[in-house]
Amino acid sequence: MPAASRAYTIVLDWLEQRLRSGEIAVGDKLPSERDLAEEFGISRASVREGVRILDAMGLVRSATGSGPRAGAVVISEPSTALAWALRMHIATQSLPVWDIAQTRLLLETQSARDAAAAPESEQRQEVLDRAAALLDVMDDPDLPSFRFHELDTEFHTVLTSLAGNVVVETIMDSLRQATIGYVQETVAGLSDWPAVRSELQVQHRAILQTFRDRDGEAAAAALHHHITWFYRLSAPDRDSADH
């Protein structure tokens, strides 16, 4: 029998194998704790720990109680787990926020170039319209700052999706989620937040226009300016990402 401290990994390995083989798919319900414990010869506590980890990884969603809705169901929310891990490591300062900003630069500017080369489609227009609608909501001066940041995050992620790279979109979403607390703390320390917010919106609309124009280089340049401009507000002594 495996050591108690490692027994839960059997559940993780089992689910990975079943997902790879297609025996289990997103939306399927996992067997009960009792059934899994009996199958693997481990304790129900170890099974429960494995399910908790899968939950934190964004692979299952657990519901307590009894009946058809109880138990763990397979889902797929990869950005949730990545954002959680990044947020914790940012808090320990092992992952500098400025390095996060530079990573965003790499991902978003390349995505902008790729999006410009993507074929025209009805979906592309829907994405651009959605981005514009988000900016319209963000124009409201009475919109709470935390909501502004949430919509800001969505705006960037939506535009990144135009490149058609699901992995990049997932990582982008994770990076934005991971830094939302930092952004809110930065804004709380700004005495001229209304002016900053207005400038951000000017930049957002300029970025959106470059996407509408399918000008990848202009979009990359606008995103570079936008990202570095904001992060310099919170770390004005840091070298710019140009160096």
Automatic annotation (TrEMBL):
CDD domains: WHTH_GntR. Residues 5-77 form the HTH gntR-type domain. Keywords: DNA-binding, Transcription, Transcription regulation. This is FCD domain-containing protein.
